[in-house]
Amino acid sequence: MPLSLACRNRVTALLIALMIIAIPAGSAALGQQATPQATPDTTEQLAAVLPEWHDELLAVMNTVSATYEIDAEVRLPGDGNPIPNITGTMTMEYTNTTGDLLTELPFRLYANAFDDLGNLLRVGDVTVDGADVTSNQSDDSSTVYVPFSEPLAPEDSATIGMSFVSAVPVNARQNYGIFNIDPSNGTWALAHWYPMLAGWDPGRGWVLDPPSANGDPIFSTTATYDVTLRTPADWRAVTSGVEVESTDIDAGIERRFVSGPSRDFTMVLDDDFEVAERDVNGTTISSWYNPGQERTGEAVLDYTAQALEYFNDLIGPYPYTTLDVVPVELFGAAGVEFPQLFYMSAGYYGPNQNLDVPNNLDFTVAHEVLHMWWYFMVGNNQYDHAFTDEGITQFMSATLYFSAAYGPEVGEIMTERHLTNPFRSNIEGGNDQIVDTPTDDFASSGGYVFAAYTKAPVGFMAIYDEIGEEAFNEAVTNYFYDNWFTVASTDDLQEAFEEASGQDLEEIWSHWFEEAAGEDDI
Ligand SMILES: [Zn+2]
Q1: Which residues make beta-bridge pairs with 43?
Q2: Does residue 116 carry a pLDDT above 80?
Q3: What distances in angstroms separate CA 519 from CA 431, 433, 435, one per listed residue?
């Protein structure tokens, strides 16, 4: 989730008129046969995975419920096409891992829940096992339901097909600007640009909440992606996953990407990005930047390499071949994490960016690198319990990373700057909150930001102080291996600390995350 503050500006100017692109709706439901669980060919997906982790991640991929195959094309305005968009088709092999009979399958069209941008993402030609079906859209257009003619039994599979057009807004500030064209740099930031299978939380079922107003807007579960993308010639494509094929075509380039096990497939396209690269433990880190911004691009590469190496050692390995860092014009966020890729605010790339030790660029990079563990590999329901990824990420990046990288005195400076000082001033200002509160149940985004980014990390620091470094490190390693590629619960995290330390931590957990003691805590 985006680190940092600032109110979300939900007022947006869409510089170009959005015109509705009609896609023919599917025809009436026809018979559809449930088929036994297919074993998709996941071998090619291993290009995204480090060789020493092929066996483990192949096992993960053979049990995911969804495999996406997407064929998409960037379409610029002109030639009868009024607006910039991504036009494509998606085919998904879905296996029912819910344990229930399913009469329909929900897909999320997250871009459609933006307040004032209209229906940016439209689907049509919906099929189930090759037969046309009529899908139904929720009132806010953020969910489309694909019906099964016969209920899909547990462990049975079906093939879902649909076409889509995803209109990409220009200078749009909604959701921090994560789905937006920035005309000043020519950058297309493409989060949630395709129809996504709704996330499944084992503790709650399908998560169909409106995209969060206060925090990370989406929730998804682990799948695999095979994406073919056509763009104008010479465009860079920075994506989740790894490029496995590239072909020059008429007036453009066609690339194919595979993801390995992944919660999402995010892309950033740009016509003139440059890149600095380095290998860390077998992973190629690519730090992208616009021309003239090499200074920050190189610093981001240094910080990413340092953080990746540190967290690899502390927690357990980042098992992918690539990690990309890309500048994006963000509104109210310093960085945003996605699988195998994170956005950094373009504001960091100016010529006067502070690079003295310690600096906030380094802090944001460390925070977003750590999200590759807490959010991407170990998932959690960000709508209901955002503190379990944001809070622990904030504590481990401010306190542990800076202490390890630059010494305990620097760690103390960053702890005070980002955690204890803002904690004290918020408590003194009467802003205490109950941390474990659904993100959109906070009265304001400020309350959410305090709970997830300030109070929660102070709570994790209290647990660290209580159980000690060795037990803390053992707990996060066990939590990683026990829960990777799943959706972990708050109990999973608490139990990891209790098992590693041999201590009952119910009191300290409740105190920090389920109560608001106000001034008693300072
Ligand atoms: Zn975050």
Answers
A1: none
A2: no
A3: 10, 12, 16
From ligand 1's centre to the CA of 506, what distance in Å? 25
Which is higher by pLDDT, 43 or 162?
162
Residue 275: exposed, middle, or buried by beta-carbon count in 10 A (0-12, 13-18, 19+)? middle
Q: For residue 115, what pLDDT band results from cuts at 50, 70 and 90?
A: low
Residue in this structure with the two tokens 């899909």, named with its chain if needed: 152
**CB-based contacts of 362: which residues, under 8 Å, 6+ apart?**
299, 303, 402
Write the pLDDT tens digit of every residue in 420-429: 999 999 999 9
Query: Residue 131: what are its φ and ψ, rounded to 5°?
Result: -95, 135
| d(C-alpha 133, C-alpha 160), whole Å | 10
Each residue of 97-109: b (16+ CB within 10 Å) or e?
bbeeebebbbbbb
Helix axes 490-501, 387-395, angle to 10 degrees: 40
Q: Which residues pair with 35 in a beta bridge?
A: 157
Question: Is the per-residue pLDDT at 10 higher than 50?
Answer: no
* Angle of helix 387-395 versus helix 360-370 axis, rounded to 10: 130
Q: What CATH code is assigned to 376-522?
A: 1.10.390.10
Residue 326 CA: distances (Å) to CA of 111, 444, 473: 21, 29, 30
Unique residue bearing structure tokens 């989060």? 191
Tokens of 397: 């990046």
Element of type H or E holding 74: strand 66-75
For ligand 1, the distance from its centroid to the CA atom of residue 427, given in whole angstroms, is: 22
CA–CA distances in Å: residue 444 to residues 30, 87, 431: 47, 36, 11
What is the model's pLDDT at position 113?
Answer: 74
Measured CA to CA, the distance from residue 191 to residue 188 in angstroms comes to: 10
Domain boundaries along the sequence of the chain: 376-522
Closest CA to 515 of 417, 435, 449, 423: 435
Residue 333 CA to ligand 1 centre (angstroms): 9
Measured in Å, residue 336 CA sits from the centre of ligand 1 at 7
Provide the 8-state DSSP code for 44.
G
Say which residue the tokens 């972990």 belong to. 488
The rounded Å distance from CA 4 to ligand 1 centre is: 8
**Confidence class for position 34, pLDDT limits 50, 70, 90:** very low
Nearest partner of 95 among 61, 119, 124, judged by Cα: 61
Locate 468 and state its tokens: 């000690």
A 10 A CB-CB count for 259 gives 28
For the chain, what is the radius of gyration of the CA atoms? 22
How many other β-carbons are positioned within 10 Å of the β-carbon of residue 312? 19
Query: Can you tell me whether residue 86 is helix, strand or coil?
Result: strand
CA 480–ligand 1 middle distance (angstroms): 17
The answer to whether the CB of 303 falls within 8 A of the CB of 278 is no
pLDDT in tens, 81-94: 788 999 999 999 99
Q: What are phi and psi of 24, to 5 degrees?
A: -60, 135
By the CB criterion, residues less than 5 angstroms from ion ligand 1 are 1, 3, 390
